[in-house]
Amino acid sequence: MSELIRRLLFDYRGVVPMTWVYFSSLLAIALYFKFNRLWSLRNLDLICLILLTPGLVTEALGREEGKPYFEYFGYVWLFVIGIIFLIRLLLDPMMVRRPLLEPNLSVGGLTFLGVALMVFLMARVATVDPNELNPGGATAGEESAVAAATTSEKAAVAPALARTETSSAQRPGYPLLRLLPSITTQRFSRDFVTQHGAPVPHESLVASRLIIIASHLSVVLGLVLIGYWHFDNIKTGVAAAVLYLLLPYMPAMMGRPDHVLPAAFLVWAVALYRRPILSGIFIGLAAGTIYYPLFLLPLWISFYWQRGLWRFCLGMVVTVGLLVGLLALRANDLSVFIHDIKEMFGIWWPITENLEGFWRIPGISPEYRLPVLTLFVVLAFSFALWPAQKNLGTLMSCTAALMLAAQFWHAHGGGLFMAWYLPLLLLTVFRPNLEDRIALSVIGEGWLPRRGRQAA
Asked: What pLDDT score does 198 carry?
């Protein structure tokens, strides 16, 4: 009997990746598509979210099977859909009419579905052995797949692996976070070309699992609370959280700490925007994890300009200072500390060699990254002046737009880091009119939010 119970409860094998792609896409349409308003903006947003999937799957197939042309097509597809979403996010502040379009399921049904999805997805993170799916620990089935791979496929993937190893020394990010391994939870191809490397240590694996699970829980809880606190509609927050869990991006990339951890910090910076010092702390944590959120400062400083600016800046400066202090304690000499600081803030001239992703497609010169980077910087500083009157809605849409725009010049797989902007994009899709949520009306003159001071 005990053997039967164990098999019933713990012998879950997981869903085949492509089956999950089709199933989750159809379920998202059934839950969120407004069949009585075919030409609504909500339907267009939903279709574009689903259209991210072909690019993600094609890139994964090309990378796993050693077929660069698949991988190149996937990045081009992601960039095209990314441009569509960037235009949509930049136009969002001008969309004043925001009709309430609730999902086609009750709050109870959405909550049950969201909890079930969260349990299954995080159970996969907690139980999968990355030494079987990640480089360095191929199983017997994978060994046979590698043996069956043609010599040309192995030769095609070898330069990409060499570029990855060469350029890894110039990947920006917080050095301590980079000690955590990524956990591959599934593969889209059965005939992937295996990279051989060292197995993942147990201690770092446990730490990575805990951080990944906590980060996803934080994103989901943050989306729900934003709907409850700021949209005055908990169903909207639950709907955004369930759609976040439904998208095929989750099972494909949910095991990457450098993807989800900055997303959790950005979501909570928005959730606690009424407390400038806490928002500053979370923006500082996001900027310390990956330096790209530093370009959000003109936008957020402009939002808090009339009230709460010094509290926001204090929270961010103290947080970044503490992260730098941890690096100083870790470093055994000055040269190591300086290298860590450069790595943390990406302090080097934009690289034009050993690029990955879109920027290594044949025929696309790496020099084109420089004008794209220039346009990105101009966009970031333009948010200091536009929109002139910033509210919570513009804060969410412009933050998502800037983190999405960072994908276009990211030298190491730009386009795949969807978690940086996806939760805020979903909030923008579901949000009501928030023109009254400005700093002067929601932030008190002291250290408490205005609502709390009025209650007191």
From this structure: 62
Domain holding 184, by residue range, is: 12-455
Structural domain total, the chain:
1
Give a yes or no: residue 445 inside a domain. yes
Residue 1 lies in a domain: no
HSE, side-chain direction, 13 A CA sphere, residue 71: 22
Does any domain span residue 145? yes
pTM of the model: 0.89
Geometric angle at alpha carbon 58, from 419 and 161, rounded to 5°: 85
Q: What is the pLDDT of residues 117-126, one digit of tens each?
A: 999 899 888 8
